[in-house]
Design a protein that fits this description.
The chain has 16 helices and 15 strands. The chain has 482 residues and is of the alpha+beta class.
């Protein structure tokens, strides 16, 4: 009853929604200071407490912020989990609550720290909350996210024989500008969560679930969030006394692998059923060329096509790659950057690029791309031939034969076109004599004689020269090579 005018109400509400979260006594004192000046009735802290409850939603944004309001007070959309695999993936990073010890050099001495934790980026298929991909690192960054997506795509091949992308991918906005193209490439629909909208990220409860599994299985579990109830946290005294028994970094990496492999094994049968529920026409495979372009590492130096194909040094070994795609040889003059998967060097992707005077890659252009296979190694000795060697050799021979024949055919077509030009233009006869240009049969003398006859017989209509058809004696040596 003491706070009834508009001025009094707004004054009390302004004090209650201050970002500093004043308590009831502090609000009472500040309000009464104003009330004494304006001759208003003074109030007690009980009045403030009652008004705080009454104005709950109105003062929430001032006290806790818009993000907290969206996550706790706004209208929540109820959503159902997907009924098929590969329809909705979500991705986020989680600081695994598993402590490890690490030695660090500080000034003149080595110091052991025990508070260290690793970060895991998980790609979750939400149909059964299956961890389709993950990567472990010191901190969440764009590189770790890319590793997790690569692991997800590779894991689909392990499960289903083909690499697939998801129909939809949801992430937060971390590294959005740098990763947007990658996100869009590995999904049909990229739908980032609105900034601050934690409710939209179904992966957050999954991390809480993983944390509880860590609590059960690992003695180096560090607890829940700092705002959790004390009785739910691990015994800090016990951890302090036994800190020398904490695992090292590799030990915790193995624990995380164990945890997520356990998750995969437990849900695998059900997850495969959800994959079978996805119609064939809705599955989105990723080709090897696309995979290497998105996730392959780029070799530091460019290469050119030579007699042995493309020969980069990868992981310390010189390897030869080539392709039966005839178009690749049309671009033999180009510099190629090589994108490769360190776990599988059977194929690489050649992408046109710019380089400096030391052949170091300065820019990947990407307007031309060719998938190259590691070259099959034939034994020199016939004695050492094994099954399959003959078939592989035959493929090379047939490719070379076809390519050579196409080039010869092109050579013939060019010569015929030039012959027609000379035949149609008398003024080129002197040029013809100087160049001694042969026709497609190699018989330049007959072409000269035909030109001379045309000069002497003016009344005869112009006719194209008749090509010699004695092909069995034409360019015999070069054709036999193919």
């Amino acid at each position: 009853a003491k706070v009834k005018t508009n001025e009094q109400t707004t004054m009390l509400e302004a004090l209650l929604h201050k970002h500093s979260n004043l308590n009831d006594v502090q609000v009472r004192d500040l309000y009464n200071t104003v009330a004494s000046t304006l001759i208003w009735p003074t109030i007690t802290e009980s009045t403030v407490a009652n008004k705080r409850v009454e104005l709950g939603i109105a003062i929430h944004i001032g006290r806790h912020g818009i993000k907290d309001f969206v996550n706790k007070k706004s209208y929540t959309v109820k959503r159902s989990a997907p009924k098929s695999a590969l329809t909705y993936w979500t991705l986020d990073g989680w600081v695994a609550e598993l402590l490890y010890q690490q030695k660090e050099q500080r000034s003149t001495s080595m110091v052991t720290t025990y508070h260290n934790r690793l970060t895991v980026v998980v790609v979750l298929d939400t149909c059964v909350k299956y961890p389709i991909g993950y990567a472990i690192g010191k901190q969440e960054d764009t590189s770790l996210i890319k590793q997790a997506l690569k692991n997800a795509v590779n894991h689909t091949r392990e499960l289903f024989g083909t690499r697939y992308k998801s129909n939809q991918l949801q992430t937060d906005n971390f590294g959005g500008a740098e990763l947007k193209d990658l996100y869009s490439a590995v999904t049909g629909h990229y739908t980032p969560a609105r900034v601050g909208n934690a409710k939209a990220k179904v992966i957050e409860p999954y991390f809480s679930y993983l944390n509880k599994k860590c609590q059960v299985y690992f003695d180096n579990w560090s607890g829940f969030n700092v705002d959790s109830r004390k009785e739910n946290q691990p015994n800090a005294e016990f951890i302090q006394k036994n800190r020398s028994l904490l695992p090292d970094e590799n030990g915790v990496r193995n624990q995380i692998h164990q945890l997520l492999q356990m998750e995969r094994t437990t849900k695998l049968v059900e997850y495969k059923k959800f994959f079978e529920a996805l119609p064939e026409e809705d599955r989105k495979p990723i080709s090897n060329e696309e995979f290497l372009y998105l996730f392959g590492e780029t070799h530091s130096h460019t290469n050119k096509l030579n007699g042995d194909g493309i020969t980069p040094v990868l992981l310390g070994q010189s390897l030869s790659f080539d392709t039966f795609n005839e178009r690749f040889r049309q671009y033999a003059y180009m510099d190629w950057a090589i994108k490769y998967d360190p776990e599988d060097l059977t194929q690489v992707l050649a992408v046109n690029a710019k380089s400096d005077h030391n052949s170091k890659v300065t820019e990947v252009i990407g307007s031309h791309q060719f998938l190259l296979d590691q070259k099959y190694v034939q034994p020199m000795a016939l004695y050492e031939r094994k099954d399959g060697d003959g078939a592989e050799l035959s493929k090379v021979q047939q490719f070379n034969k076809n390519l050579g024949q196409k080039l010869l055919n092109r050579h013939d077509q060019v010569n015929k076109a030039v012959e027609q030009t000379f035949a149609m233009h008398d003024e080129l006869n002197d040029t013809l004599k100087k160049m001694i240009l042969p026709d497609s049969t190699g018989n330049y003398k007959k072409l000269k004689q035909a030109a001379e006859r045309k000069k002497t017989v003016k009344t005869e209509p112009k006719q194209l020269p008749v090509a010699n058809t004695d092909f069995e004696i034409i360019e015999t040596d070069i054709r036999q090579q193919y």
